[in-house]
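Entry 14. Ran structure prediction on the chain below.
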Amino acid sequence: MLRGVDVSLAAGDGWLVLRGPSGTGKSTFLAVLMAALRPRAGRYAVDGLDTEALRGEDLRARMAWLPQEAHVFASTIRANLALAAPRGALAGSEGEARMRQALAATGLGGLLATLPAGLDTPVGSGGTALSGGERRRLAAARALLADRDVVLLDEPTAHLDAPTAAALLRDLRSALAGRLVVCVTHDDDVERAHDTVVRLGGATARTG
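Output, structure tokens:
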């Protein structure tokens, strides 16, 4: 059950960081944002329009989602990134340039430069050829290539060691500048002074 949340955010305002122990409604909040659940009471508006007037697929078309366990397919880096856009949209030299830019923005440019097959390097079943941090960065690059107004991050630093998590957050902050970002996290190090922080479970919201 999610109650008593009153928050608004515009692109460029910093991230909306959602905190709270398990069972306080963090996953429910994301589900409402993606219209997988509809609010029984209250109002959820986008650009001033009540989302009750929008189809779920139209609302989700404006969002990129980076889940806690983003799936990496048993294919190549190129094929995994191509899933971010309609079939053929990332083909050709322009599409490849966009892929390389997205990988660089999420901190995988150095890795790509060391791979003899480059974008055509297989990543193994579930991305087993990559480290946990590299899989998370590949999924983040895929979210960037989706080129959506809103990006939802679900525990982006989960299961990463402190230096890897800090580096990923630094790259995400830079890559997602200017977009509306909602981040669900247990990580105390995610928050920045200019973020809007909502603490569920009887706590309050803080706007930096």
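Residues 40 and 67 are 25 Å apart (CA to CA). Will compare against last week's run tomorrow.
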